Amino acid sequence: MARKIIMTGDEAQYIERRGANCVTDDREIRMEGRHARYEEHIGAQATHFPHNHNEAVGKQWFDFLITKGFIERDSELDSWLYQMGFSTSQPAEVKPIAWLRTVETARLMLTRIHSNLLESKQLTVVRMNELASKCFTKQGEPLKLAKPRREYSADADEIENFLPTFSDL
């Protein structure tokens, strides 16, 4: 018997993400109410950068980028931490981060955060560009990073000079 899904709300949502070789079960799912929402993630992993730092550093970067207006204020910390490789805990819903400044400053931020992975060749510039387009948006479209070049601006200086500490103390 196949899965049976009953949705009565006019804005009800059923979201299912499955990885390869994952099989559905036969249960009945009933969703009632205008905004009913059901999410199921089985074996599906959202795109993310390689694991790189600890969560405390990720939170410091997140706070810095929010405060300085590089990313939208309503960005979700859990999505940021997972996508950027600061956490291995995937949230139920991973939302792309909306980048508000220039694509040059986005590249600079990513190369600063992942400098050790880039230097050790665990992350290539090509792969960083691919991941950026899946993890970030700019004006509602996937973020396309600029070619490497030096940007002389107050924004670039702020990113260059930001130094997260490795302790919450």
What does this structure look like?
The longest helix is centred in the middle third of the chain and has 13 residues, at 55-67. The chain starts with a strand and ends in an 8-residue tail after the last helix. With 169 residues, it is an alpha/beta fold. The chain is elongated. The protein has a domain at 55-161. It contains six helices and seven strands, in the order E-E-E-E-H-H-E-H-H-H-E-E-H. It has a three-stranded mixed beta sheet with strand order 5-6-7. It has a two-stranded parallel ribbon with strand order 1-3. Strands 2-4 form a two-stranded parallel ribbon. Helix content is 33%, strand content 16%. Helix 3 (103-113) packs parallel to helix 6.
Notable features of this structure?
169 residues; 3-stranded mixed β-sheet; 6 helices; two-stranded parallel ribbon; alpha/beta
